[in-house]
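Q: what sequence does this backbone want?
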């Protein structure tokens, strides 16, 4: 990352992280026209689709791919650490939500044994309240 020149990047644009259902995609778009430059589908986290470089938390390598299955790895960098942090958190949050949704579906499919907590005939409960009685 030390060799990457953020002062004069080869391309500059808008990045969107789109999360819909179980899909998460990084979209790189022209910041004026909105024309798509490239997409990076992320199937799991962490994954080969997005990797942090070793010497900086502000730089990443992402795998852009097209509909034919071809792909290219490109480096991206953020001038602000906060933007880099938000990028990482947005992707992590998608996969946390996905895992929680899957866990809920599993629980609903296999709820486990039901526990009968009702009082049986003849059982009583005694409650002592201090200052009363």
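A:
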């Amino acid at each position: 990352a030390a060799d990457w020149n953020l002062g004069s990047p080869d391309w500059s644009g808008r990045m969107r992280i789109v999360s819909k259902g179980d899909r998460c995609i990084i979209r790189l778009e022209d910041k004026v026209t909105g024309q798509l430059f490239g997409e990076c589908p992320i199937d799991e986290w962490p994954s080969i689709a997005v990797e942090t470089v070793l010497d900086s938390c502000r730089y990443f390598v992402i795998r852009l791919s097209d509909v034919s299955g071809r792909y290219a790895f490109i480096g991206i960098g953020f001038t602000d650490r906060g933007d880099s942090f938000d990028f990482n958190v947005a992707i992590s949050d998608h996969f946390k939500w996905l895992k929680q949704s899957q866990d809920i579906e599993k629980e609903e499919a296999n709820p486990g044994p039901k526990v009968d907590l009702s009082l049986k005939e003849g059982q009583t409960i005694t409650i002592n309240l201090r200052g009363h009685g």
